[in-house]
Amino acid sequence: MDADGPDVRLSDAERQDALDALAEHMSTGRLDVEEFSNRADRVGTAGMRSDLVPIFADLPHPHPAALGALARPAGDAPEKRTISDRIVPRTVPIATVAAVAFVSVVLLPIAPSLKLVFLLPLVVALLLGLARRPRR
Predict the structure, then answer these.
(1) Worst-scoring range by mean pLDDT, 2-16, 45-59, 73-87, 106-120?
(2) Helix and strand tally (H, E) in the chain?
(3) Which of 8, 44, 49, 99 is most buried, by CB atoms within 10 Å?
(4) For residue 21, which of 36, 5, 2, 6 has the smallest C-alpha distance?
(5) What is the pTM (predicted TM-score) of this model?
């Protein structure tokens, strides 16, 4: 028998973990008190890990740890991230800072008239950002 499989009996700690997950869903407004009570009763009478699957089938995370991979629908596999997904968000800001530093240190002393080329887009972006900011 697989110790992490669906046909393993639930422990009291695993039931408590499931109740804690349901309480989190109730506190975020996904479950009302009646639905929470109904599902909590089902958790209390659940005997196997597989009994928890229908209780959490229509809820996003958090799920109880006892479910593990059981609670994840087949189409909801974790998204695989490519190397560019990890590197690009980090390198773009660094490259931007490096470009601004290069222009400031190398190009502006050589051609001071280039200040307008760099200041104009900055001023426009700043004004557009202020114009789109929601008013309080």
Answers:
(1) 73-87
(2) 6, 0
(3) 49
(4) 36
(5) 0.50
